[in-house]
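Example with several molecule types.
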Amino acid sequence: MVDQSQARLMKQIKFLKAQDVVFWFVGLFVLAGAFLILFALIYDMAQTGIPRINQEFFFNFPSRFAGKAGIYAAWVGSLCVVLVTALLAIPLGVATGVYLEEYAPKGWFSRLIELNILNLAGVPSIIYGIMALSLFVYQFGLKQSILTAGMTLGLLILPIIIVTTREAIRTIPNHIREASYALGATKWQTVSSHIIPYSFGGIMTGVVIALSRAIGETAPLLTVGAVAFIAFLPTAPVMATAPYVSAQWLMDPYTVMPIQMFNWISRPQEEFHVNAAAAGIVLLSMTLVLNALAIFIRYRFRKKYKW
Amino acid sequence: MVKNIKAEVKNLTFSYDKASTGRPVLNSVSLPVHEKSVTALIGPSGCGKTTLLRCFNRMHDLYGSVKYEGKIILQPSGFDILSNEVDPLEVRMKVGMVFQKPNPFPKTIYENVAYGLKIRGIKKKSYIDDKVEDSLKKAGLWKEVSDRLKASASALSGGQQQRLCIARALATEPELLLLDEPTSALDPISTAHIEELVGELKKTVTILMVTHNLHQAGRASDFTAFMYLGDLIEFGESSQVFTNPKEEKTENYITGRFG
Amino acid sequence: MKYKLRRQLTEKLIEFILFLAAASSVVITFFIIYTLVTEAFPFFKEVGFKDFIFETEWTPLFENAKYGIAALVSGTVLTTTIALFVALPFGIITSVFLSEYANDKVREVFKPMLELLAAVPTVVYGYFAMQLVTPFLQKIFPDLSGFNALSAGLVMGIMIVPYVSSLSEDAMRAVPQQLREGSLALGASKFQTSFRVVIPSAFSGIASAFILAISRALGETMVVAIAAGLEPKFGFNPLGPTETLTAYIVQVSQGDLPQGSIGYRTIYVCGIVLLLFTLTFNVIGQTIRHRMEKKVK
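Resulting structure tokens for the full complex:
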């Protein structure tokens, strides 16, 4: 006979309560531990790097001498590349998301595109890099240019933008669409004056997160030939003489923040590792600021609409 | 009909919010639950009948701080379900519950029934085997599933799933069995099965049942409590409450004038 | 009438433009496969398939070139395995904690922090692995070489914890509340409910999270390129240097690489092998996930 007595029951309850408390602490410990380790690492990197961060560091070009080297070309390059990336990926990604959610007939074709996007999102970034090396650098003849880099990263973050756009649109309840159609609006009128504005917060959150990923991405740019040693800035987009604007900068060679950092880590001399730490702090700040921005946008817009 | 009292609600006032000063969800409710019989809780939506039922195994404690005043005493031990010193786990080990929608775990039929025993730390296989068979027999499901105990519970029909949930609760020999509108998600035939089963079960178990269906309350219960806006309006033997209610509100409700 | 016609035309035109955008994603896939296959194809004319599979050395840029992909594959498998040893337990614990134990306040603190963990650029994780984790581990394992699979794998594991935990947490939160109530009403504790009811119910979602995480780890580049050393070696020694498929691609493409040279070809060969691995896990993971979503509905 199995003992079902009160005493045994109380013992079991005591055990279960203890187990729950233990797991609560294990969970907290693991999470807090992970963050503590991360903060320790960042703190350590900051200690090494921050003394190196000054105005010269931001406005010097790379140099053979660690003490004189800076990240001028790198941060300007990062901004130029991300600009190209954004111009390519945002319209293409949002348009695809809108098409799949609002237009695409449910059938084999939209299922194909859907599957395709899911798989594209799982393709390692380095694969985009070698694809771009063959296609953009050689076959299209775009060489190791800002345009190549921007397009490569644009394709890379496209799936992220598509997926978040779709998720944002999906949160809009159907009665909003029906209300618009009932007033005689066409599909595009419904999309442009209701769907996109209402999902704007969600879309922007995804876009900002995607761009922060692009800023930190290193591997594909290494393969399409970003050079670490660039001692000049891209051609200015505006000129004093006619035709006043120039797209020459798109075809210029470039370096970006993560490449610069990678280059410094890869050198054997300890002084360059200090530069790497400093560049790491700047890079980390850039991505964290973008992510904080994304969280802020999401928070703002979550409060705005209540269905 | 003279029966021993199995549980007793004494001046129970309940609010979902500790700080609330407004009207409580249950307002000084007192109610006896007689042993080896079926007590039905009826009343219009929002009257507090499900809330009262869920007090009996402290389900409210799962969702943040709630305020209980008064007592629910289990007899003959005199165990106060609502006492602060009592752990909700202990209450739930003594009081079983079956929900509106059948909620079998995505496990085998056997595992579902054995679950309550296993979480109590019982490991003896022969004992568990016997208990599983015994509970499934009591729930009237043994004949249908004895040859496929290792099959997934989700393959059963809705009515069978609900009887499985009853078997799951019975396996732990609860002192009191709570049924929260157990047939509201079922078709008429399955409903009839469950009602028949409830009539059979009351020979051995004390049952407290919330129901929306007045016919069901009339058919399947021995005692009926009518609740309205958090108050207990009337309690009595079902035959009396349904044929000769003392309160006007009760009469209006059972004759279909509101609700 | 004219207005109506123009309106219809605009509508059609816009739909067509949006369609083109959607179709472009298929074009990208086509280009990925096309470039990989055409650039790698001539390689297999020069190198026999047998050598490629059974040779254990990978020295394509040496005089006496050998093309044993197994050397790079073993490095990839090694670092991925180490990463999973970190990511699986930690991912499960965090997701159970966040979905079943933590109250809203605790969750609102930790979830954005987990997202930030995922936002740290991989090159920075690489720095951590090489500059901080390796010296620390060397105190525990004195034979640990300066570049090693262990610290790269560990850091990679931490890197994919947020990914595993957010996908598995989604799966656990999709488990209907009635199942939890059913278990708790029988007197089960939170721990019992989490591990005996919630996790089995969310099993396919959690499994797909792990499989997708494997695919992530296989394709991760910068951490291993920086911290694991660049020595292709067949074997599974976590304390020594190794090289993954991804790290090899990075290493070779940093040098001067004329189009059409054998070195150039090899990065596409590695790309194909890598893509086959990640795609397999990805397809399995997505299929399980898709089935789960259907079932939940």
